[in-house]
Design goal:
single chain, seven-stranded parallel sheet, five-stranded parallel sheet
Length: 336
C-alpha cells in the first residue's frame, strides 16, 4: 500500500499567486500517482475549472478563511504593531487545527505557525516543510549588515520580526524533511545544523510562456529590475550605482516600492533614464523584455529563489544577479 500525502498550506490551489502555481502541478501529480489523501487551503473561484471533479473532492477549501483574511487586512491596514501576513498565518493555523483531519502518513506544510506542526507531530505525522525562504537567521543577519552599512535603523518586516523568526526556527526543529528552492538556500539550513540528507531541492514553476531569443541588434541595452523593492532586494544599491557611475542606459524599476526605499528614490528623481514603474502583470513584463534589448538585474541580499530571475530567463533575456539570486539557473558568462 502506497504512503499517502496531505497538504495543509495557507494558499489557494488555483489562481495567480505563485504558491497556487506550485499547487496545481503538485496536486495533479499526487492524485495521478495515488498519493494524495487530501489538501486543506483557501477557496478560489478558479478551482472548479482548474481541477477535475474527482480531485476537487480531495480539496478542503475554506471560504471562511478567505473572508477572515480580508477582514484582517482591512482591520490591520494601518497598524504598525501587527503584521497582517503574520496574523493571517496564525488564523489559518487555528482553522487547520480545528477543521483539518487526515489519515495520511505525510503532511506538507509551511513553517509557520509552528503550533500546527506540533499538533500534526502529536498525531504521528511525518512533517515535510516547504522552506521557500532562506533560513530566517541568515536573512535577518544579511539585512542587519546591510542596514548597518547604510547607517540606517534595521528595517522592520517579517524577516526581522523576532517572534516570526523564532516560530520559523521552532518549526524547522520539528521538521522531518525540508524542501528548499536552490542549492544556496539549502546551504543556509545546512550551515545552521539541518541534516543535508533530509533536504530536497526543487525550483518553482512560473506558469509563463517561453519566448525565443530576439534578433541581435545595435540598440542600447535597457536594464530591468522586477521586485517588491526594499533593502532586502538591494534596489537601493542599483540606484546608487546608476547615479554615481553616471550610467546612461535606461533602468526600469518595476513593482511595489516599500517605504524604506523613498530616500533612495528621491536621490535619483532628476535622472531621466531611471523609470519607477508600478507593478505589472507577468504578461506585460514579458512584453517589456520582448520589445526592448534588455538585461535583467536583481541584487537581493537574501533570496531563496528569485522568481523574477526565472521569468526573465524564460524570455531568453540574460540577467545580472547576486549569488543568492541564481536559482541554480544563472551561469556566469553564459546567461548572466
Amino acid at each position: 500500500m502506497k504512503t499517502k500525502i496531505s497538504i495543509a498550506m495557507m494558499t489557494s490551489f488555483s489562481g495567480e499567486n505563485y504558491k497556487a502555481k506550485e499547487m496545481l502541478p503538485l496536486i495533479n501529480y499526487l492524485y495521478d500517482h495515488s498519493l494524495l489523501e487530501k489538501a486543506y487551503g483557501i477557496w478560489d473561484k478558479k478551482d472548479n475549472v482548474s481541477y477535475r471533479s474527482e480531485i476537487l473532492k480531495r480539496l478542503k477549501r475554506s471560504k471562511i478563511v478567505k473572508i477572515m483574511f480580508k477582514a484582517i487586512s482591512l482591520l490591520l491596514k494601518n497598524n504598525r504593531r501587527l503584521d497582517p501576513y503574520l496574523v493571517r498565518e496564525k488564523a489559518f493555523g487555528l482553522c487547520a487545527c480545528m477543521f483539518f483531519r487526515t489519515d495520511a502518513e505525510i503532511v506538507l506544510v509551511k513553517p509557520r505557525p509552528s503550533f500546527l506542526i506540533q499538533k500534526l507531530k502529536k498525531r504521528g505525522k511525518i512533517i515535510v516543510i516547504d522552506a521557500s525562504e532562506n533560513h530566517p537567521c541568515y536573512t535577518e543577519q544579511m539585512l542587519q549588515e546591510e542596514c548597518a552599512r547604510l547607517g540606517i535603523p534595521v528595517v522592520h518586516n517579517n524577516y526581522t520580526n523576532q517572534k516570526a523568526i523564532k516560530d520559523y526556527e521552532k518549526a524547522i526543529l520539528l521538521a522531518d524533511y525540508l524542501i528548499c528552492r536552490s542549492k544556496f538556500s539549502a546551504q543556509t539550513y545546512i550551515t545552521r545544523g539541518f541534516p543535508k540528507e533530509r533536504i530536497s531541492i526543487t525550483g518553482l514553476e512560473t506558469g509563463g510562456i517561453l519566448i525565443p531569443p530576439r534578433p541581435i541588434s545595435e540598440e542600447e541595452i535597457v536594464f530591468v529590475c522586477v521586485a517588491n523593492h526594499g533593502i532586502l532586494k538591494g534596489t537601493h544599491k542599483l540606484l546608487k550605482i546608476w547615479k554615481e557611475k553616471k550610467i546612461k542606459n535606461r533602468l526600469l524599476i518595476i513593482g511595489k516600492i516599500y517605504t524604506e526605499m523613498k530616500p533612495y528614490i528621491k536621490e535619483i528623481e532628476n535622472l531621466k533614464n531611471i523609470e519607477i514603474l508600478e507593478s505589472m502583470t507577468r504578461e506585460k513584463i514579458a512584453e517589456v523584455y520582448k520589445k526592448n534589448k534588455c538585461m535583467g538585474v536583481l541584487m537581493s541580499v537574501s533570496e531563496s529563489y528569485g522568481r523574477t530571475v526565472y521569468e526573465c530567463l524564460c524570455t531568453s533575456t540574460p540577467v545580472l544577479v547576486t549569488p543568492t539570486c541564481t536559482c541554480d539557473l544563472v551561469e556566469d558568462g553564459i546567461n548572466g
